[in-house]
Amino acid sequence: MTVGRLARRASQSSQRQVNRDLPCYRGRGHVIRFTPTVSRVAAHSKKSESGEDDAADVSDSAETEDTDDTTSKADKETNEEGGKGDDKKKVKKSKPADKKKDAADADVTDTALSSAEDDVAPALEGDWRDFRAKLVSIESGVTDSVDETEKVEEASGPNLELLKTQNPKLAAEKPWAHTISAPERGCLLIARGDSFSAGQQYFHQAVILLLEHNERGTMGVILNRPTQYTMGYVSGDTSGPFAKNALYFGGDVGDGTVSFLHGSGAVSGSVEVTPGVYLGGYDSACNLAKGGEIKSEECKFFARYCGWGAGQLQGECERNVWYPVAAAKSVVLKQVLQLPKPLWREVSELVGDKVGYESRKAYGEETEEDVEKFGFKGWDPEDGVEDE
What is the dihedral of CA 341, 343, 349, 350, to 10 degrees? Predict the structure, then answer.
């Protein structure tokens, strides 16, 4: 199924052109390409311990994008002769008087810089989104750290305990999530609770990480659709450092591609999608994993991806098909395997407010207060438009 059919807007040909224009698609430097075995992955999802089934039904994805386009040649040739004369410059020897003047100027400059640094607000260290999340929390009325801790414990407690055994370093970072006004690179898309219940069910209660989002289009991967296959199976290398890693179903576009996500800045050849979350650098990661510098459980692999044409995703968000959400990297990078609480529900509860209500409603736990505050007269999951 093409991206154009997904949104019922763009034509097949125009959508392919949009995908070729996307940086992650065009360069193909951050995508692993295997034999067509990946395209035949039936993507049967594993059930969580709570019995929830994040089934990834890809039977409708018969038609996919042709990614065998050739890389265009550079339009300009390097002029090796140009600018050689500019490299040779005469150096004027400084006289003693000049040296004293230079030293005095340097002292003045150092003093001015020191004074300027005192006047400038300190730079935000680490993930700047943590700071934004705190502002959102304050604006929403959550000012007590005890209340915030209780909210996190209620939403992520069971999953956090599992993460402590899988990836203690990642578990040390407090999970958080909040809605944002519009999609952005590195954000999550949270599907509305009853969207895609009839068709395209791999998007039902999906949590999608946007790898790229600009005026030409959007691409991302579904985080909560693990399959029954491993990287060793699809790559044919059963003894490699990532042979036992689960393969996730990333979307319905890009037949034969596998995207590689991780949290290590030491991996060369990767790009930072959002603070602390990196894409690509597979060969480097293999070498680091063999040397014990990174662990295989810190990496995630996705067969294929999701794609939207120019303006498509924005329109879907305006129709409340998706909620754009910023989230901590611990939410993005953790393995979604046998979670006590499904990822979609966890993130929804971390966000709270209207999105949290969607979660309670989906699981039949809505209260009279919920209905009074958030209830709707009606909802059409096919077009995402509320009834009047």
Answer: 120
Contact 270/262 with Cβ under 8 angstroms? yes
Q: Does residue 338 come out as left (phi exceeding 0), alpha (psi in the -120 to 50 range) or beta?
A: left
- By the 8 A CB rule, do 335 and 297 touch? yes
**Which residue segments constitute the domains of the chain, with CATH numbers given?**
3-63+177-336 (3.40.1740.10)
Other C-beta atoms lying within 10 Å of the C-beta of residue 50: 13
Q: Are 303 and 227 in contact (CB under 8 A)?
A: yes
Does pTM top 0.90 for this prediction? no
CB 208 within 8 A of CB 302: no
Fill in the DSSP letter of residue 203: G
DSSP of 231-265, one letter per residue? Answer: HHHHHS-TTSTTTTPEEEE--SEEEEEEEEEE--T
Crossing angle (nearest 10°) for helices 343-351 and 145-166? 160
CA angle at 76 for the pair 71 and 80, rounded to the nearest 5°: 125
Four-residue CA torsion sign, 377, 380, 384, 388: negative
Q: Alpha helices, DSSP H only, in 140-235?
A: 145-166, 168-171, 231-235
Of the candidates 204, 226, 203, 230, the residue with the CA atom closest to the CA atom of residue 307: 203
Query: What single-letter DSSP state applies at residue 11?
Result: -
Residue 208: its pLDDT value, please? 98
Point out which residues pair with 214 in neighbouring strands. 217
CB 254 within 8 A of CB 64: yes
Q: How many CB atoms lie within 10 A of CB 314?
A: 16
Identify whether the C-beta of residue 303 lies closer than 8 Å to the C-beta of residue 258.
Answer: yes
Q: Which residues of the chain have pLDDT under 50?
A: 1-28, 35-94, 96, 99-101, 103-125, 138, 377-388
CB atoms within 10 A of CB 51: 6
Helix, strand, coil content of the chain in percent (nearest 5) = 40, 20, 45
* Cα 172 to Cα 364: distance, rounded to the nearest angstrom: 32
